[in-house]
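Module 6 notes. Inverse folding takes a fixed backbone as the condition and produces residue identities as the prediction. Think of it as a translation problem where the source language is geometry and the target language is the twenty amino acids. Below is one complete input and output pair. Work through it position by position during the lab.
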C-alpha cells in the first residue's frame, strides 16, 4: 500500500444539511460521472421528512443509478485499500468533536502521519488521525460503502459481497448493470 494517497478528483459539495448525507452521496455519484448536486437529492431521498431512512434511501438511490453499493469490512485497512485503488469511500462517523453522526467521504490518507483525509460537510480537506477516525467510525457502527460502476471491481473484492451488491442493484430495476457486474466478477476468476 502506498504511503500517501489523495483522490483530488472527488468533487466537494459544502453542506451540513441532513447529517451531510446528500453532500457525501453527491460526491460519490459525481465521481462516477453522474451529474449531481446535493439539492437534486432532497426529493429522491424523501427530505425533509425521511431522515430516519436516509442511509437506506442513499443506497437505494445509488442502485437506481446503476451503481453497485459495496459494503466494506470493519477495519481501517479495508478503507485504505479502496482509497489506494482510487475509490473514494463513503462512511458514517460519530466523532466527539461534532454533535452526532454524519456522513463523510474518505479521499486520502498519509501513513507516515497516520491521518485520513475527508470531505465532510463544509470541509474539503478535513484531516483526522487514524485513531480518531477509527473511534468515530466504530461509534457510528463501522458503516462504510463504495458506489461502483458494474465494471469497477473493488480492491480485494469479496465475491459473495459483490454478488449481493449486484442482486440488490437488480432489485432496484437495474438488471443490465447487475448482469454486467456479475460478468466482470466471473472474468476476474
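Target side of the pair, the amino acids:
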Amino acid at each position: 500500500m502506498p504511503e500517501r494517497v489523495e483522490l483530488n478528483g472527488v468533487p466537494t459539495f459544502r453542506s451540513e444539511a441532513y447529517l451531510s448525507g446528500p453532500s457525501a452521496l453527491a460526491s460519490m455519484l459525481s465521481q462516477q460521472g453522474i451529474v449531481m448536486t446535493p439539492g437534486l437529492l432532497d426529493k429522491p431521498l424523501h427530505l425533509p421528512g425521511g431522515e430516519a431512512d436516509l442511509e437506506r434511501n442513499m443506497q437505494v438511490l445509488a442502485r437506481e443509478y446503476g451503481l453497485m453499493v459495496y459494503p466494506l469490512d470493519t477495519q481501517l485497512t479495508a478503507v485504505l485499500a479502496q482509497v489506494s485503488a482510487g475509490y473514494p469511500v463513503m462512511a458514517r462517523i460519530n466523532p466527539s468533536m461534532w454533535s452526532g453522526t454524519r456522513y463523510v467521504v474518505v479521499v486520502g490518507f498519509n501513513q507516515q502521519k497516520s491521518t485520513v483525509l475527508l470531505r465532510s460537510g463544509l470541509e474539503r480537506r478535513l484531516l483526522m488521525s487514524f485513531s480518531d477516525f477509527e473511534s468515530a467510525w466504530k461509534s457510528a457502527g463501522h458503516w462504510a460503502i463504495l458506489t461502483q460502476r458494474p465494471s469497477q471491481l473493488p480492491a480485494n473484492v469479496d465475491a459473495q459481497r459483490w454478488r449481493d451488491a449486484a442482486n440488490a442493484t437488480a432489485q432496484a430495476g437495474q438488471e443490465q448493470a447487475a448482469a454486467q457486474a456479475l460478468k466482470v466478477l466471473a472474468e476476474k476468476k
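Reference fact for the lab report: Strands lie at 4-6, 68-71, 89-93, 102-110, 115-120, 123-129, 144-148.
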